[in-house]
Amino acid sequence: MSDIKLEFVGKQVKDMYGAYVGKVIGLVTDIDGSIESVGVDCGSIGLKQLLYEQLLVQGDYVIFIPKWRMEAQKLLRQKSLTIKRVKALENLVEENDLMKDDAEVLHLIYEKRLVDLENNEQDVINSLNIRLQDLDSQSTTIKTIIFDAKLQYRSNDIAEDTYQQIHSNSIELLDRINLEKDEITNFLSRITQPYVEAPPVELEDNQIENHEVSDDVVDKDSEPEPISGNIVNNEKQESAPSEEVQNDETESNWLNEVLTRDSA
Predict the structure, then answer these.
(1) Do the Cβ atoms of 177 and 135 come closer than 8 Å?
(2) What is the chain's percent helix, strand, coil content, to nearest 5?
(3) pTM recorded for the entire structure
(4) DSSP 3-state assignment of 26?
């Protein structure tokens, strides 16, 4: 069994917000040996098969990445990269007018890509809003449980330590829900806000010649990177820290704090 497979088997699975999911009991592989999904024992819920692309080994845990997050992160990076390349291409043409005819084809490719991304943007926004509604519904249910427990305690139906345990567990769950809601709200803000033009970025000559357009998806052939707010980021960052990089660093610190707190 390869090292990467051994990294999964037997590990506990948590989501990005600290909630326990289950324990990895095995893997489902394709005919070429690549991992398709991971079997997770979720207790009374039974066995769940989680897609490999949504999992990342982080220390003693396997972290489950929600699909909405991967879609939102991918959209943001593709849109940012495409716009920067359009601007870079325009700058190159301004510097050398002889490149105008050659650059026109590539410019059309990137413009079409932006149209496709704009069409996909609404689907991602709808997905995020649906998840927010689901989390709001869960929050309402949890608050009802807390209020009912308080009534039971005041009417001497349950002991104080029982009430305190219910309250503590419920607040912990609310905290995790609020973490996810905050992140979804952050993504919605970043997706819908007008794009702030970044400094011109020079394209490599081979990129221009080959008409490259990146699909920055998770590269599972490479070594897993430490968990961060930029999990689907396989592009190298620019030299100066941008707002996007700062957001990713903040998310990384937050996630590591969640992992540390839950493993304590």
Answers:
(1) yes
(2) 60, 15, 25
(3) 0.63
(4) strand
